[in-house]
Amino acid sequence: EIVMTQSPATLSVSPGERATLSCRASQSISSNLAWYQQKFGQAPRLLIYGASTRATGIPVRFSGSGSGTEFTLTISSLQSEDFAVYYCQQYSSWPPYTFGQGTKVEIK
Amino acid sequence: DVQLVQSGTEVKKPGESLTISCKGSGYSFTNYWIGWVRQMPGKGLEWMGIIYPGDSDTRYSPSFQGQVTISADKSISTAYVQWSSLKASDTAMYYCARRAISTPYFEYWGQGTLVTVSS
């Protein structure tokens, strides 16, 4: 089973600032990585797939990069609605298609 | 529009059985894998398993194999997760989600079903 490790666990950022979230895979997953956003009390929402492709309707301030074992989600200028928990998920090897443990982005 | 509508909140006692459901609409239900994801209170997302309603091909995470049964009824565009004997540790929010057609990330999610198991 591929283990996904996200860092940091919590990221404190001021509105308008840049946020950089990391996700590491225990073995190479090529670009088979998705990012999801989960706001409190809501279902997750797909943000990024293929490591760097934004899903439909996702603002351009969200960007993804990386391949192999190291991946990054960047939010260029945090808006109030972006404070949430973010999860990465590998879909290179199954079952299962494992998730990371999440990074909480909170208001500084 | 694609929609996944899940059944409502459940409160059960340990040892009881339970089936929760996820009804898909706005797309061809038989042509897309439907997965289930567990989220225990205050915790992260766990991939449980997935089913292809077209032929009922089902795959489980090793962590959930033998603990739950995933099924689907394509005649009513509904997927299910079933427990035969609930434990307190099954207390969680359960989400269904539809896979993209050619790649395995989850494009669409249900609203979640909260299951509470308590004596």
**Which structural class is indicated by helix and strand composition of chain B?**
mainly beta
Which segments of chain B are poorly predicted (pLDDT under 50) over 5 or more consecutive residues?
A: none
Distance between the termini of chain A: 35 Å
What level of helicity do the residues of chain B show?
Answer: under 10%
Number of strands of chain B: 11
Distance between the termini of chain B: 40 Å
Low-confidence stretches of chain A: none
Shape summary of chain A: globular
Tell me the Rg of chain B in angstroms: 13 Å
Structural class of chain A: mainly beta
SSE pattern of chain A: EEEEEEEEEE
Residues in β-strands, percent of chain A: over 45%
Taking all Cα atoms into account, the compactness measure Rg of chain A is 13 Å
Could you walk me through the main structural features you see in this protein, from its secondary elements to its overall organization?
The complex is a heterodimer of chains A (108) and B (119). Helices cover 0% and strands 47% of the residues of chain A. Chain A has 108 residues and is mostly beta strands. In chain A, a hairpin with a 2-residue loop joins β7 and β8. Chain A is globular, with a radius of gyration of 13 Å. By secondary structure, chain B is mostly beta strands. In chain B, a hairpin with a 5-residue loop joins β4 and β5 (45-52). The model of chain B has no long low-confidence stretch (mean pLDDT 97). At the A-B interface, β4 and β5 of A face β5 and β10 of B.
